[in-house]
Design goal:
The chain is mainly α and 264 residues long. 80% of the residues lie in helices and 0% in strands. The protein contains 13 helices and no strands. The chain has helices at residues 2-8, 10-36, 47-54, 56-89, 94-103, 110-123, 130-154, 158-166, 171-182, 184-200, 203-209, 216-225, 232-263. Helix 6 (110-123) packs parallel to helix 11 (203-209). The N and C termini lie far apart (49 Å).
Length: 264
């Protein structure tokens, strides 16, 4: 009975997850941190970060990657919010059908979808470049914007909308003062879920631009893949900079989301 009690305890079943986090999350992050602040001989140094800030091409690539990620996030928000709103307010089978249409492409690996997009552009003789890159980004990450907003709108208390109408608010006022503020947690979640992967991606850029456009993720991939062991320290420094940007995005997103919930 004691053995069965120990096996059935929640703490016991948590150990596999703890082991997984230590081996595949904590340990890799520690290695990145150590490599970022050391040279190939293992001595402490800040040259890896100075190399980044002193390289104009790397800094410009970083800024350009942030701009592409922000533009992609804005486009996904402009396209995703109306779709999520229609899904949340429609009746009968419309939400299920629309959800299925958005889910179907996600059943295929995103690299295969990107290759199919490349062939689609080639079929219609559309040149690959920045426009194709933004299109591919939006195509791959649009569902990550739609579903957080849809879940938030679906759980919204409809009586608040009815109360706003009873108090004399028109449709535009109801949306601006009731629906939009209540959907802000979903918007912030969608922004984070789209911005974080787009700012660090590299495969989509390489395929949809024929390596004509380099994103920050491509710099990291080249440092680890093509630069050899001597470039691992520089690649780790770039990765740490990227992690800091993603961490700040998540922090401010959670802060804004909690602040919105408090106001509501």
């Amino acid at each position: 009975m004691k053995l069965w009690t120990k096996i059935g305890a929640r703490r016991t079943w948590a150990w596999p997850y703890v082991l997984f986090l230590v081996l595949f999350v904590v340990l890799p992050l520690l290695l990145i941190f150590v490599y970022a602040f050391t040279d190939p001989q293992g001595h402490f140094t800040l040259k890896n970060f100075m190399q980044f800030f002193n390289t104009t091409e790397a800094v410009n690539t970083f800024i350009y990657s942030l701009a592409i990620a922000m533009l992609t996030t804005i486009i996904c928000l402009l396209l995703g919010y109306p779709a999520a709103y229609i899904m949340a307010t429609a009746e009968l089978k419309t939400p299920a059908v629309m959800a299925m249409l958005f889910i179907l492409p996600m059943w295929i690996n995103f690299l295969l979808r990107t290759l199919a997009t490349v062939e689609l552009f080639n079929m219609f003789s559309i040149p690959l470049g920045e426009g194709a890159l933004i299109y591919g980004m939006c195509y791959d990450f649009l569902p990550f914007m739609i579903y957080p907003i849809y879940n938030t709108l679906q759980k919204m208390d409809k009586s608040l909308i009815e109360a706003a109408h009873d108090l004399g608010a028109n449709g535009r006022e109801v949306f601006a003062k009731v629906i939009l503020p209540l959907s802000m947690p979903g918007i912030y979640s969608g922004i984070i879920m789209v911005f974080m992967p787009t700012v660090s991606t590299f495969a989509i850029a390489e395929l949809l631009t024929r390596n004509k456009i380099t994103l920050f993720g491509s710099l990291i991939q080249r440092a680890f893949g093509e630069g050899g062991l001597t470039m691992w320290n520089y690649g780790a420094a770039l990765s740490l900079i990227m992690l800091l940007i993603i961490g700040l995005t998540s922090f401010f997103g959670e802060k804004e989301e909690s602040g919105t919930a408090t106001v509501i």
